[in-house]
Amino acid sequence: MLEVTKDTFDQEVLQASGLVLVDYWNEGCEPCKALMPHMEELAKKYPEVKFCKLNTSLARRLAISQRILGLPTISLYRNGEKIDEVTKENATIKNIEDMIKKYL
């Protein structure tokens, strides 16, 4: 997974072609940290999707601009447009994988 920052987000996510998944997380979010190893597995399983993670503690304004209102939030972008997301208790591995499969 690629760690993106407020400085690299535009280039790596909004200007990317194809599907990009962004895992919004921070150190204080235990469910986010529990999801991380599973996200790494999904990244290997779906090489056609670019997997990124953004620590919202270091990019609060960016997270707000992307309408990230709770954590964990997993957002899927296609060609720079947010097309889907799962958040909070809906951010399960099954729901994340189902969301990916829907757009492949």
Query: Low-confidence segments, ≥5 residues, pLDDT <50?
Result: none
Task: Give the full name of the CATH homologous superfamily.
Answer: Glutaredoxin
Biggest sheet descriptor:
5 strands, mixed
Alpha plus pi helix count? 4
Using the alpha-carbon principal axes, give the shape. globular
Write down how many β-strands occur, each being a DSSP E stretch of 2 or more residues: 5
What's the pLDDT, averaged over the residues? 97
Strand content: 25-35%
* Helix/strand order: EHEHEHEEH
Give the helix/strand class.
alpha/beta
> How many domains comprise the coordinates?
1
Could you explain how this protein is built, in words?
It is built from four helices and five strands. The chain has 104 residues and is an alpha/beta fold. A five-stranded mixed β-sheet has the order 1-3-2-4-5. Strand 4 (73-78) and strand 5 (81-87) form a beta hairpin. The mean pLDDT is 97.
Short description:
It contains four helices and five strands. By secondary structure, it is an alpha/beta fold.
